[in-house]
Write a structure and sequence with these properties.
Strand content: 25-35%
Radius of gyration: 21 Å
GO molecular function: prephenate dehydratase activity
Catalytic activity: prephenate + H(+) = 3-phenylpyruvate + CO2 + H2O
Largest sheet: 6 strands, mixed
Bound molecules: prephenic acid
Shape: globular
EC number: 4.2.1.51
Organism: Iningainema tapete BLCC-T55
Keywords: Amino-acid biosynthesis, Aromatic amino acid biosynthesis, Lyase, Phenylalanine biosynthesis
């Protein structure tokens, strides 16, 4: 059976680029043939895996300029059945794509909210009066450009080539060092034992360097967050990320997403999880994974 890899589309997105890198890695390391499947949103690409329409999804989770991709965090929490099996980091270099003759002719700029935010200072400086319109992905609006010369989109140089569209400006992200971390997600956890079942779960990887988890708290009282955090400190487990998201149940109530720099099977992490269960309301462990060297 061919492995289907869901990602944010239409073709040309950064998510497709990351999915393609993973596809090549998978093929080289396990011989598996995989095919990319674009979906209209990040949430839909994750749901495709939960509904068995695809075996894997590659989704953005964090950017070095703009921080967390909240749709990914919210959907991982909502869908109980998904496991993170790998992470990969790619450089992001935005370009302004348009059929306009010059920047002065551009009146509207479309892009994914993350890309708009990563270029906000450049936009303020060079296009202070344009209307900024968020879209589901950096490539969603590219087909509009030929019909409307006032419109531009922020996307990659690769997307401009793919759609055969002119580039008005390059390197427009506010910080040159712009990178996004993507997660590879599946329904089954990766198996590090060579004897285990399915080929897709048997891919050889380095030992896991990170574990991602999230929890809600039993009560909104002083010290409710300090206690779970102290568990990691006490056991000498370094945290590389903490992010809060609304529970969506009531104003001011939050979920906490944590990345710990250890494998879930390490004895210290197992102790941390047993203690965490006592001090959290709902605890979800999304998986242990390594970061693919790119
Ligand atoms: O719209 C795209 O091209 C995407 O792949 C999404 C996305 C994101 O959500 O962060 C991916 C990488 C960049 O940071 C900008 C946009």
């Amino acid at each position: 059976m061919t492995t289907l890899i869901a990602h944010l589309g239409p073709p040309g997105t950064y998510a497709e680029q990351a999915a393609n890198l993973y596809l090549n890695w998978l093929n080289k390391n396990s011989g598996l043939e995989a095919v990319l499947c674009p979906y209209p949103s990040i949430a839909q690409s994750l749901r495709a895996v939960a509904k068995d329409q695809a075996q894997l999804a590659v989704v953005p989770v964090e950017n070095s300029i703009e921080g967390s991709v909240t749709m990914t965090l919210d959907t991982l929490w909502e869908l109980d059945s998904l496991h993170i099996r790998q992470a990969l980091i790619i450089p992001i270099a935005h370009t302004l794509i348009s059929c306009a003759q010059s920047l002065e002719d551009v009146k509207i700029v479309y892009s994914h909210p993350q890309a708009l935010a990563q270029c906000q200072r450049w936009l303020e400086r060079f296009l202070p009066h344009v209307q900024l319109i968020p879209s589901n992905s950096t490539t969603e609006s590219l087909l509009l450009l030929e019909q409307d010369l006032k419109v531009a989109a922020i996307s990659s140089q690769r997307a401009a080539q793919l759609y055969n569209l002119p580039v008005l400006a390059t390197g427009i992200n506010d910080y040159a060092e712009n990178r996004t971390r993507f997660l590879v997600v599946s329904k089954d956890a990766i198996c590090r034992d060579v004897t285990c079942g399915d080929a897709i779960n048997r891919v050889s990887t380095a030992p896991a360097s990170h574990t991602s988890l999230a929890f809600s708290l039993p009560a909104n009282v002083p010290g409710a967050l300090v206690t779970p955090l102290q568990i990691f400190a006490k056991l000498g487990i370094n945290l590389s990320k903490i992010e809060s998201r609304p529970t969506k149940r009531s104003l001011g109530e939050y979920l906490f997403f944590i990345d710990a720099e250890t494998d879930v099977n390490e004895a210290q992490m197992q102790s941390a999880l047993s203690e965490l269960r006592v001090h959290t309301e709902v605890l979800k462990i999304f998986g242990s994974y390594s970061v693919l060297p790119m």
